[in-house]
Amino acid sequence: MNNVAVQQPHRSAWPEVSELFSGFPSWAGLRPMFGKHVIKVEDDIKDGKYVLQAEIPGVDPEKDVEITVRDGVLTIKAERSEKKESNGRSEFSYGSFTRAVTLPGGADEDAIKASYDKGILSVSVPLKESDVPEKRIPVEPAG
User: Fold this and answer.
1) Other residues' Cβ atoms within 10 Å of the Cβ of residue 107
2) How many domains does the chain have?
3) 135 to each of 72, 121, 132, how far by Cα in Å?
4) Which Gene3D superfamilies match (predicted)?
5) Tens digit of pLDDT for each residue in 26-48?
6) Is the pLDDT of residue 25 over 70?
7) Spatial contact of 96 and 73, defined as CB atoms under 8 Å apart
């Protein structure tokens, strides 16, 4: 009989740093970037409307912001560019932002309105009552 001892690698009682964060989503996915600034987006349903607000300071809403809707998905695209000149030097900074959200059921895509005031883009989508009733799906036992 062969008595070969297999050594297990020594493992600290403390997990490695990468293991601590393995259950969290990617930070990149949580922070949409617009140049150097994080864009804050809030949405809510109130008074029969779906309302979305996005902080997009420093843009010309007529030239730099595009809002589209297709198949129940609202997409906001914004782009900002800035040029600074001083002492014979010039600096350019630019960034773009795209955010797509699925509209709630009953969204009236033909009546969407958007406005921009003091760096806040507001999009309002009226909601219609759904004429399709909720359908219950029975769960059957396997086997």
Assistant:
1) 19
2) 1
3) 20, 36, 9
4) 2.60.40.790
5) 444 444 445 444 578 899 999 99
6) no
7) no
What gap in Å lies between CA 1 and CA 11, rounded to an integer? 29
Give the domain range for residue 59. 37-126
Q: Which two tokens stand for residue 140?
A: 């059957």
Model-level pTM greater than 0.70? no
Task: Annotate 69-98 with three-state secondary structure.
Answer: EECCEEEEEEEEEEEEEECCEEEEEEEEEE
Per-residue pLDDT tens for 101-127? 999 988 999 999 999 999 999 999 999
| Within a domain: 28 | no
Instruction: Read off the CATH number of the domain in which 102 is found.
Output: 2.60.40.790
Element (H, E) at 58: none
In a domain, 81, yes or no: yes
